[in-house]
Amino acid sequence: MIEVFFQFDFLRNALFSGILVGIIAPMIGVFLVVKRMSLIADALSHITLTGIAFHLLLASFFVSLAPFDPIYMGVVFAILGAIFIDKLRKVYEHFKELSIPIILSLGIGVGVIFISMANGFNTDLFAYLFGSIAAVGQNDLLVIMVVSIFTVISLILFYKEWFFLAFDSEQAQTSGISKNWLDLIFTIIVALVIAAAIRIVGILLISALMTLPVSAAIQWSKSFKQMFIYSIIFGELSVLIGLFLGYHLNLAPGGVIVVVGGLFLFGSILAKKILNKYNISFKGVKTSKAE
């Protein structure tokens, strides 16, 4: 019954957007997990919500802004949040993890204020929070395509540098790699991916799409590159199955996608334990080199 997704424009947009998001979110998530920065996705998603709420607030005062998609303001806030996190990591050099809860807390606080000033929650904001198939328009697909192209190109250009920084930051800097600029570019890309994926997965659930497929992939990967491949496979399956079930069961796709991703994760853990129980050799991910 997948044919139904090609009969209507909004379903087709959701399908193509989901395919792209299923690639770039786990792909970036691999680096987030390895760098132990998974929570940054939560922080930037809440900053994105703040930008969306700010647009809705402005639109309530200036009617001329109403036709514009709030996601653009969300992208601006996400990028600013990424830059702010990077600056805070330099301020708290020995406590870099503090930058994430600071931005997360501010994002929630300021976002709630904007939402309350804009007369509370409405249907549009609910769709941003949890994702909505019907909300994915042509402009959203275009934004996701641009972000996907930019993300893939950046990954191709900076893969070796990001890999080196992820596993041995000090040695990478000693080798002449510009850590500050590369970290900033990576954080901005994370912000863009989050903003692009909001329509499909939702603000409150996007971090799960960046971590659950990677967590499942770790159970089967024998190298860093294999972790990329398996993460994308699990991510794509989660998105496609989630979209299909979400549409036919009339459920928010974001929640279904995350539940499917969780099932893949727990299924992988269970399968790994069964293999170990019967002494079937299957080594975990090797983090010492990229094959």
UniProtKB/TrEMBL annotation:
**Keywords from the named record:** Membrane, Transmembrane, Transmembrane helix, Transport
- By its UniProt entry, which Gene3D superfamilies does this protein fall under? ABC transporter involved in vitamin B12 uptake, BtuC
Which SUPFAM superfamilies did the record assign? Answer: ABC transporter involved in vitamin B12 uptake, BtuC
What is the name listed in the Swiss-Prot or TrEMBL entry for this protein? Answer: Metal ABC transporter permease
Source organism of the structure: Alkalihalobacillus trypoxylicola
Question: Where does the sequence pass through the membrane?
Answer: 14-34, 71-88, 100-121, 141-159, 180-197, 227-245, 251-271
Give a GO biological-process term. transmembrane transport
Q: What is the lineage of its organism?
A: Bacteria, Bacillati, Bacillota, Bacilli, Bacillales
Membrane topology (UniProt): Multi-pass membrane protein
Task: Tell me where in or outside the cell this protein is found.
Answer: Cell membrane; Membrane
Give the main location.
membrane
Q: Which Pfam families match?
A: ABC-3 (PF00950)
By sequence similarity, the record places it as follows: Belongs to the ABC-3 integral membrane protein family.
Q: Among the entry's GO cellular component annotations, what is one?
A: ATP-binding cassette (ABC) transporter complex
Domain of life, source organism: Bacteria
